[in-house]
Amino acid sequence: MTVPETPAVPAHFTMSEDEIIAKFPNRLRGYDLFRKMGSPKHVVAPMVDQSELAWRILSRRYDADLCYTPMFHARLFHQDKKYRDEQWQTNEDERPVIVQFCANDPDVLLKAASFVVGQADAVDLNLGCPQHIARRGHYGSYLMEDWNL
Question: Annotated catalytic residue: which of 97, 129, 134, 143?
Answer without folding.
Answer: 129
